[in-house]
Amino acid sequence: MLSLNAEELQDLKQTLKTRVPGHGLPRPFYHRELLYQAELEFIWRGGWLFAGHSCQIPNPGDYFLYEVDDDSMIIVRQDDGTVRAFYNVCRHRGSLICEAGEGSVKRFICPYHQWTYDRAGRLILFRGMQAGIDKSQLGLQAVHTRELEGLIFISLAQEPRDFDAAAEAIASMVRPQGLKHASHPQYIRANFDQYNADDTIDRIAEELAEVTARSATKWAAQGLAITVNHTGLAEFPDPDRNIWYAADRTPLLDGYVSETMDGQQIAPLMGAYTDPDVGTLRVRTLPNLWNHSSCDHSVTTRITPNGLHHTNIRMIWLVDAKAREGTDYQLDKMLPFWLLTSEQDWEICVRQQRGVNSHAYLPGPLSTYKEYNLDRFLRWYLKEMSEALG
Length: 390
Ligand code: FES
What we know:
The longest helix is centred in the C-terminal third of the chain and has 22 residues, at 336-357. It contains eight helices and 16 strands. It has helices at 6-16, 28-31, 33-44, 164-174, 202-222, 331-334, 336-357, 372-389; strands spanning 48-53, 62-68, 71-77, 83-87, 102-104, 107-109, 116-118, 123-125, 142-148, 151-155, 182-183, 245-250, 280-285, 289-293, 298-305, 311-320. The mean pLDDT is 90. The chain is an alpha+beta fold. A seven-stranded antiparallel β-sheet has the order 1-10-9-4-3-2-5. It has a six-stranded antiparallel β-sheet with strand order 11-16-15-14-13-12.
């Protein structure tokens, strides 16, 4: 728990007020350790975090670790098929229990003095301890967990915020994609995101209208809905309504059926799809998930803070569970599109971080045509932080 004295609290509140509306964040937002700790407390330990995909842990005992700053969590498939999460901290003297990032276990054995926990986190064995110690009080500390159509979310909050509205909004959109039954092996020209209010010429607007009308009729027959039918990015998040989650389906440009380098299908259809023409599905939850899915593959990006100036990024590619690498799909056809795009994004972020590190950095105005989602995100972030600080 973060503990703030009155002066620190006041200082943070003042800092949150320093953003000029419509501009980027001032330099202290990128440098203040206290602000970073407050973000960890209120944003990262306050909300729901995407931890990973169900297909990473298909069988009882399969687990993976998810580390958020100093906290390490074990996400493990239970014997009854559900998923639970625990802090990866021994109840004896606090040693990290699991070191390997993923694996499969019958039970968890702490390497220090071999206290042993079952998959449900119960302490089942310890040696060399005096009589009278109640094992039932010394199980692993549980973390709130929700599994949603192949996506696993955790909340480190004592009392997590509501998840049901997000679950409702995301589940029906994601279900046809079949992420629940996916497996995981080992941008930009395809969609209408690149066009914005200032550069959508009549020809592009007409093209989008045609594609939308055609897709809407065809998709309706498959039970799929278009939720975004304009150029540019779908507006997200909505700070005024506390919306931190979104799932949208949009058409691709004519000639494209998948977000691949040449727009062609490169793997078997996923989930319930019967036709490659399903556009692209996007799922986003704040603060740390975005997922782009085409008819034949799905790509997830998870971001996690790892110190004031570092972010860990994990990307996961998913295909239908029955698809076989080398026969049904080739990685060299599947990976480049999002890998190249993401690497370009990361380079931009590194350069951006170096720029805002400078004492000369001053935030400039954001474009209302192209950076409206950044403005929404900053307003969401400031609102979350202000409300948490009271
Ligand atoms: S610290 Fe884990 S068994 Fe002692």
